[in-house]
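Page 37, continued from 36.
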């Protein structure tokens, strides 16, 4: 598949989709209709484009637009960029500051799903996995590494549109939206206390939609994840939101929030079968003896769930007993008890 055919596949399949989630799904559906050799060629071209776009300056653009950008976040940013089509992609590689002209919502410019669309389609068509990664790039980015202080000079138009001054201006122009977000957050906390997790997730999603401050959006994402991870039909979605909160943590200078985000990640891991990682993270958090009683009880339950899944029922029982003594109303106790097969 040549480059023109690659871009034609993306642009034709996504033309009628309403948002990036639908675009990624539409691309995957179109790819499932292709023979295996075409999927292999599509994947190879995607990998070439990811290598060609692995530059410091484009990473800087992602950093400015999203208020911070990790390694994985840069991959997901380029997933979003792929869905903008060939013209926007090539202009952005030549001049990342040109992205100031592209419609985008600050802090939410990424699409992970599109990066794995061809791999999922290939598995559906052939029953086997692609033999190489199509998303990540191990080599050092091309060009000159930057410090954050360099970005206003390197990307002046993006900085004017998405930098801290623009965030402050948005808050000044739309204080009602941030107030609405805070009100929805308060209501969501109330729903969590009632253990009405579906309503809590809905309220936190509304808070994230209205929120203008990065910290508001981060807390909303984390609370969405925590709520969904209490619902047996939403564990995978909860993991995705936990990953979003983890990525956004880099953009928020608040050390107090990190343990809560890490605790949510630990829960996401054990509820999605990633038990070893979840136990390691939860038990590391338990080393902080200054944590609030409720937080410690939750972390003990997370460790218990993971230990039970790993077959260490005695360790799970000990963690459950301690959690119950600390907080008998802990929302995770039923899941921990069920995982350990106890009553």
């Amino acid at each position: 598949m040549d480059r023109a055919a690659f871009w034609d596949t993306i642009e034709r399949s996504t033309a009628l989709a309403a948002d990036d989630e639908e675009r990624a799904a539409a691309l995957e559906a179109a790819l499932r209709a292709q023979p295996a050799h075409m999927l292999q060629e599509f994947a190879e071209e995607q990998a070439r484009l990811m290598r060609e776009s692995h530059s410091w300056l484009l990473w800087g653009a992602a950093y400015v637009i999203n208020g911070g950008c990790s390694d994985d976040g840069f991959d997901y940013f380029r997933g979003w960029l792929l869905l903008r089509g060939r013209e926007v992609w090539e202009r952005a590689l030549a001049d990342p500051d040109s992205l100031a002209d592209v419609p985008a919502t600050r802090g939410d410019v990424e699409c992970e799903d599109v990066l794995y669309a061809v791999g999922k389609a290939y598995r559906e068509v052939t029953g086997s996995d692609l033999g190489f990664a199509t998303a990540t790039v191990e080599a050092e980015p091309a060009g000159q590494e930057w410090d954050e202080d360099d970005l206003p000079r390197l990307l002046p138009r993006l900085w004017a549109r998405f930098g801290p001054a623009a965030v402050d201006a948005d808050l000044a122009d739309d204080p009602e939206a941030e107030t609405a977000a805070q009100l929805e957050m308060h209501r969501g906390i109330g729903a969590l206390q009632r253990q009405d997790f579906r309503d809590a997730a809905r309220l936190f999603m509304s808070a994230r939609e209205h929120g203008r401050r990065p910290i508001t959006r981060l807390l909303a994402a984390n609370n969405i994840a925590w709520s969904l991870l209490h619902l047996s039909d939403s564990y995978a979605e909860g993991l995705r939101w936990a990953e979003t909160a983890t990525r956004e943590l880099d953009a928020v200078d608040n050390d107090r929030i990190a343990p809560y985000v890490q605790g949510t990640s630990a829960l996401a891991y054990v509820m999605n079968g990633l038990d070893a990682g979840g136990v390691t993270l939860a038990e590391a958090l338990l080393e902080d003896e200054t944590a609030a009683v409720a937080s410690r009880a939750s972390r003990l339950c997370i460790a218990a769930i993971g230990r039970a899944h790993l077959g260490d029922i005695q360790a799970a029982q000990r963690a459950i007993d301690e959690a119950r003594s600390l907080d008998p109303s802990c929302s995770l106790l039923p899941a921990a008890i069920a995982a350990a097969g106890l009553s």
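The first helix runs from residue 3 to 14. Flag for discussion at group meeting. The CA atoms of residues 32 and 124 lie 7 Å apart.
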